[in-house]
């Protein structure tokens, strides 16, 4: 019953902040989100980023100029993902020897931060708010990456130029879209790509939840300080500030919980799954680093900046921990590829942003 009470609190929060009235599944048919995307969608890979330059720039500028409305069907789909993933996290925590006595519910919310926000609900448990923008960003980036890198199928489905624009659109939507805007959806994947993207997306989202569960398990929220940030997409929001050393600890607990999911795999499976897991976990922090950097360059406020250690420090600390805990020799290779690819793409993204700055609609 308590989790249902947390769900009711989540619904209340969405209503109070005028995000949506409810996430009632009965009124939001599954699968409508992509088809109903306001900017249409790409149907084939050759269409991606191949419209006239002006059309593409206007689409970027439009997100910045006109605040989009939150779409209930979209948020409902994201909530369904969280509902499917959260029990796995709690199950893995139990398998790792941590009993989660406090009821926890992960709820989708436009928080504007790549970190989950724990909202204690007295007498009921902890509501973990996961940014709608984060879920969209990670999904888009994974899709673009697997289609742009030759590792996942040759020839790649996207050229480097196409990938640059697609990535610029995804990051633009994250930075300027208030957790309401998705980049124009890419075509469906085929071959080995959908399984890889699906797996890494699941792992990346689980890491965000597991980090917050880590705070609950380690008792960090007892005696935490309240941190209010007025600059989220929906105005002032409260989070719990626990200090940087405890943030590192929550990262390590989350990694430990996640690695338990590999227990019992045969060596050949482990060779495939461990690099994916490590890559997905670090992807969240790589993206954190990239969007923080771009936000700073563009003079945008990053909500709750400073509540966690800088992403670079978290990456360093977690890489050391993962290198120590990993069971396969190439466990960190995929993460290194992801980091290199993102870094290589940044120049292109900056250039699209600069051009979009000059557009007058
Ligand atoms: Zn934290």
Beta-strand portion reads: 5-15%
The largest sheet has its strands arranged as: 1-3-2
**Class of secondary structure makeup:** mainly alpha
Count the DSSP helices: 11
Please state the CA-atom Rg, rounded to the nearest Å: 20 Å
Spell the H/E element sequence.
HHHHEEEHHHEEHHHH
- Mean of residue pLDDT values: 92
Q: So what's the overall shape?
A: globular
What summary fits the major beta sheet? 3 strands, mixed
Separation of the first and last Cα atoms = 51 Å
Q: Which small-molecule species are bound to the chains here?
A: zinc ion
* Unreliable segments of 5+ consecutive residues: 30-35
Q: How many strands appear in the DSSP assignment?
A: 5
How many structural domains? 1
Q: Percent range for helical residues?
A: 55-70%
Account of the 3D structure:
With 361 residues, the protein is mostly helical. The protein has one domain (2-31, 46-357). It is 56% helix and 9% strand. It is built from eleven helices and five strands. It has helices at 2-16, 32-35, 53-65, 72-95, 132-148, 160-176, 193-217, 244-259, 267-297, 311-325, 333-357, and strands at residues 104-109, 117-121, 125-131, 225-232, 235-241. Helix 3 packs across helix 11 and helix 7 crosses helix 9 (267-297). It is globular, with a radius of gyration of 20 Å. Residues 115, 211, 215, 247, 250, 308 line the site of zinc ion.
